[in-house]
Structures are given as structure tokens and as C-alpha cells.
Specification:
Layout lengths: L3 E4 H7 L15 H7 L11 E10 L1 E5 L4 E4 L8 E2 L3 E10 L2 E12 L3 H11 L5 E5 L2 E4 L2 E4 L2 E9 L1 H11 L7 E8 L2 E7 L5 E6 L1 E6 L5 E5 L2 E5 L2 E6 L5 E8 H12 L6 H18 L11 E2 L15 H9 L3 E4 L10 E2 L9 H5 L20 H6 L10 H7 E6 L1 H8 L8 E9 L5 E8 L4 E4 L1 H7 L8 E5 L5 E6 L7 E2 H9 L4 H8 L4 E4 L2
Parallel strand pairs: 1-14, 2-20, 22-29
Antiparallel strand pairs: 2-19, 3-6, 3-16, 4-5, 4-15, 6-13, 7-11, 7-12, 8-11, 9-10, 13-14, 15-18, 16-17, 18-19, 21-30, 23-28, 24-25, 25-26, 27-28
Helix pairs in contact: 5-6, 5-7, 6-7, 6-13, 6-14
């Protein structure tokens, strides 16, 4: 084969472009464009999502049976036909620079009154208001995930962690976020195995299959097939990141089997598909601020492994609900959060994450009303929808023992030292979940605030909906209900309702009361 040597820095300067954001004689800076994470649509009007599938790379192989095309400008401009397998190798790389901030509170930009009140209340703390998220018109609807982060900083990463430790008691929902000060840069080579085909590129490059067969990337001896295109780009550490750009609908087909058993009733799968679609749209503007992708492929965002985990039943649920999204009565996308099992009663959103009460996220019984005597409630078999299927009963009721040593070790992570003499719930939510827990013993008592903080501090309990008793030798027995925060859709409850004949719209109306199901695209 004739040897091909191209240095695309010079090629880009001469290439005609068809970009709405650049002049005809000006090359597209693909790296800069991706770090801006612009919201784009495919030919059907469905949003395209950028998924970070691998990072910290020095080399990666991309293949397709009929060949791989190289797109140095993304979808605009030059397309270079390449071999069946292309190896991308980093030849140089300069890290970018990141600044860290501590967000004391986050407020939706769509609530200007709350933004103004929060600004006045937190002004004495010296916060700055930093906007995060996106707004875009899709047909008759407006997607707005923007929120204002009232933040302290900038800090280095260690300083931000120290600031969060200082502020956690007063602001239990505080979190660290980052913004880039300078972008990374570098050069890589895309070449065939025999080096007869060789292209040098700076910054970033997109790859598509020459024909219909999908692309695959190869890492650690394993091939990962993906839909859509792959993009190689420099990360903030100066090393390579691999990004998969694909339609949100294809992405949902890849993640739905991880969200709900493919064997679940069809109407439950459809309800889960709608809820998952809403969560993807909500997260796209609020995660990975300093990365060139919307979401990662880890559990942190949603476990995703390309085309490996697709299933015909979950694929059908995605197709049957294509473009369907829940909205509130004001026309904004609903926050369609969900958890594994509510344990018999859902929780209010503000009790879990703080902020303003959301009328669509009200904790309500998932069956008979909650027994006010929690001890009796836990002793009795659950009669809720989330316990109607065999697997749901195990998630709905649980019991675990933590030894004195185990508690001492886990509580040390929140600053408690010494032996635990007692655990005293100081405040419970509408579902019975503990929102404030006093730890007695040791040098001085410690009050923990926040459902997730409490669960983690006690060694990773399934939920904070529990009662406890002290055993000999300082151990504690926890008897609880539910798995997860309990806000929004209860996955086991949805399966129980579907098995009883409820359709997806009815299931969604129960878990998101007052929401409107509409087709967005």
C-alpha cells in the first residue's frame, strides 16, 4: 500500500469547512468545541450525548471490519479513509489547569426568587454565583438545566477538600466543583499496524466506521463495540481520553439493562426508560465540568459498556417511549430521580438533597399508609408494591449488625473518635428516614445531617429508614426498609405495579404526581 504521511495542522488551515460556528476559511478547533460541550441533535432531532469511556491513555486501538474514517474537524470538513484498525499513540501532551470551588448551595436558575434570596442570605460568606448547565429549545419545549452554584474559592484540590470539611456541618449538601482555567494540548499519531498509513494530529480527532459495521475500541485485551462515533482528545492531565458520541436513545439502550432487570414487566421497563431519559437530560449540563464529555461510563453517572449490555426487551422499551419526557406544570423537564426500593414509603426531595420542595417529588405511601410505630412496621411483612415480587421483598426489609470496631472505623471518616454508647435519631422525614442522627460516646457527641451521610457513616446501610438496638460488646443491630434515597420512582414498586396491571403512564403519575408525559422529539 502506498505510504500516507499527513500532518493535519497544516491540512486544517487549508480545508474548506461547513461549520455554523466558524468562518469558511477558519479551521474548527475540535478540542475547544468539545470542552464547551455544545448541545447538538442527530437527524431525528434526538440529542447527542458525549460519554467518556476511557481516560488517562497513552495509546488506544480503534477498528471496524470495513475500515475506519478519520475526521480531524469532527463532522465538518476533511474525511480521511483509513485502514480496518488504527492505533492512536500520544507523542506529546501538556496538562490544562483546573480551579476548584466549594458550592455551598445550588439553586435552579429557573427560580429567580430563590436565586435572589439565596444570594442575599449567603452574601456575608463572600460567595460568588457561578452558572452551570445549559438551555436549548427543542420544538415547542425548552430544556433548561441551568443552576446557580453559590461558591467559595477558587482553591487548589486539597484546599477545596479542607473547605468542605469546615463547612459540612453548616452546609450538609455542599460539594466541590471545578472549572478549567487553561485547556490541555498535545499531539498524537493515528497509524496502521505496518505504519503505511500515518496521520499526525493535535488536540482531538473523531473516528467513524467507513460502512455500517460499528466501531470498537480495544483496551486491556478486550474489544468494546459502540454505536455512533469515537473521539480521541486530550484530557486535563495531558493524556488521551476516549469519548463515544451517540444518540441519547442508543445510549439508553446501553444503560437500561443496568437500571432494571430486562426480565421485569414491560410497563415497568417503559416507565424506567422515561425516568432514565429525564435523568440523562438533567445530568448532561451538570457533571464533568472540566471534561470534554457530558457523562462518564462509570456508576457515578451510569454504568455503560457500549453495545455489550443491550437486551431485546429493554431496547423495545426505549423504542416504545422514544423522545418521551416528563414535564412539570410550568413546562420544565421533571427531575425524574429514582432508587431501588422506597421500603413502603417515598421521601420528600428537600429532606434528601436540601433545596426547595418539588411538588413532583413528594414522599407518599407505596401501598398501605405507613405505620406510625416504626418497630411494628419493620417487624411486619411489607404490603407495599415494592415487596410484591420475590426479589423486592429482600430490598424492602433488611437486617444487619455492625460490630463496635466496624462502627468505630466507619465513624472515624466523619470525625467521630471513641466508642459509640448510643445512636439517637433527632429528625425523621415523611417516610421515616433519619435525617439527623446524634452519635453519643467518645470525646463529645456528633450530629450527622443528611440521609446519605448517615448511611455511609454507619458502614454503608441500604437506607436511613431503620430502627436499631445495642447488643453486647458494643455492637448495634439495624433493622431497616428500602434500598436508596427513596425519592421519585421506586424501581421495585414500579415492577410490582406493572405486575398488577398498571401501565407506564399510571406508574409515572404515582411516583411523579402532577407531571405531564409528552413527546419531546
Amino acid at each position: 500500500m502506498r505510504k500516507i504521511l499527513l500532518t493535519l495542522v497544516g491540512l486544517l488551515a487549508l480545508s474548506p469547512l461547513a461549520s455554523a460556528t466558524a468562518a469558511a476559511d477558519e479551521p474548527v478547533d475540535l478540542l475547544k468545541t468539545l470542552y464547551q460541550k455544545r448541545f447538538t441533535l442527530d437527524h431525528t432531532g434526538a440529542p447527542l450525548v458525549l460519554i467518556g469511556v476511557a481516560s488517562g491513555l497513552d495509546a488506544v486501538e480503534i477498528s471496524s471490519p470495513e475500515g475506519v474514517d478519520l475526521l480531524p474537524n469532527g463532522t465538518s470538513g476533511v474525511r480521511i479513509s483509513g485502514p480496518k484498525t488504527v492505533k492512536i499513540t500520544r507523542t506529546s501532551g501538556t496538562p490544562g489547569r483546573v480551579q476548584h470551588y466549594l458550592a455551598l448551595e445550588a439553586v435552579p436558575l429557573s427560580d429567580p426568587d430563590l436565586v435572589a434570596k439565596t444570594r442575599v442570605r449567603l452574601a456575608p460568606r463572600g460567595v460568588t454565583a457561578r452558572e452551570q448547565g445549559y438551555v436549548i429549545s427543542m420544538g415547542p419545549r425548552m430544556l433548561d438545566t441551568r443552576r446557580v452554584l453559590f461558591s467559595l474559592g477558587p482553591y487548589t484540590a486539597p484546599q477545596a477538600s479542607e473547605a468542605m470539611a469546615r463547612e459540612r456541618a453548616a452546609f450538609p449538601h455542599a460539594f466541590v466543583h471545578a472549572e478549567f482555567a487553561t485547556l490541555p494540548s498535545g499531539t498524537f499519531v493515528a497509524a496502521s499496524g505496518d505504519n503505511a498509513f500515518r496521520v499526525t494530529q493535535t488536540g482531538a480527532m473523531a473516528f467513524e466506521p467507513t460502512a455500517k459495521s460499528p466501531l470498537a475500541y480495544h483496551l486491556d485485551g478486550k474489544a468494546h463495540r459502540v454505536d455512533g462515533r469515537l473521539i480521541v482528545i486530550f484530557g486535563m492531565d495531558g493524556r488521551l481520553i476516549l469519548v463515544n458520541e451517540l444518540s441519547i436513545e442508543k445510549y439508553l439502550e446501553g444503560i437500561l439493562p443496568s437500571e432494571m432487570f430486562p426480565s421485569a414487566p414491560a410497563e415497568a421497563l417503559k416507565a424506567q426508560a422515561v425516568a432514565a431519559r429525564g435523568q440523562v437530560l438533567a445530568k448532561m449540563g451538570q457533571r464533568h465540568n472540566t471534561d470534554p464529555f457530558h457523562l462518564c461510563s462509570k456508576v457515578h453517572c451510569q454504568a455503560y459498556d457500549g453495545l455489550l449490555k443491550g437486551d431485546p426487551r429493554t431496547d423495545l422499551a426505549v423504542r416504545q417511549t422514544a423522545g418521551q419526557v416528563l414535564f412539570d406544570t410550568a413546562g420544565f423537564p421533571a427531575d425524574t430521580v429514582y432508587s431501588s426500593s422506597c421500603g413502603g414509603h417515598g421521601e420528600h426531595n428537600e429532606n434528601v438533597w436540601g433545596g426547595k420542595p418539588n411538588p413532583l417529588l413528594r414522599g407518599r405511601p407505596d401501598g398501605p399508609p405507613l405505620d406510625k410505630d416504626l418497630s411494628r412496621f419493620f417487624r411486619q411483612p411489607s404490603r407495599s408494591f415494592c415487596a410484591r415480587l420475590p426479589g423486592g421483598a429482600g430490598a424492602s426489609r433488611w437486617k444487619v449488625v455492625r460490630t463496635a470496631a466496624e462502627l468505630q472505623q466507619s465513624l472515624a471518616t466523619v470525625g467521630f473518635s471513641g466508642k459509640v454508647s448510643d445512636l439517637v435519631p433527632r429528625r425523621r422525614g415523611v417516610s421515616g428516614r433519619i435525617l439527623e442522627l446524634e452519635i453519643r460516646g467518645g470525646a463529645k457527641p456528633l450530629v450527622l445531617s443528611g440521609e446519605l451521610v448517615i448511611r455511609r457513616a454507619l458502614g454503608g446501610l441500604r437506607s436511613s429508614l431503620f430502627v436499631h438496638k445495642k447488643l453486647k460488646d458494643g455492637a448495634f443491630e439495624f433493622t431497616g426498609a428500602g434500598f436508596g434515597h427513596g425519592v421519585g420512582l421506586c424501581q421495585w414498586g414500579a415492577m410490582g405495579r406493572a405486575s398488577g396491571g398498571q401501565k407506564a403512564p399510571e406508574i409515572l403519575r404515582h411516583y411523579y404526581p402532577g407531571s405531564l408525559l409528552q413527546k419531546l422529539y
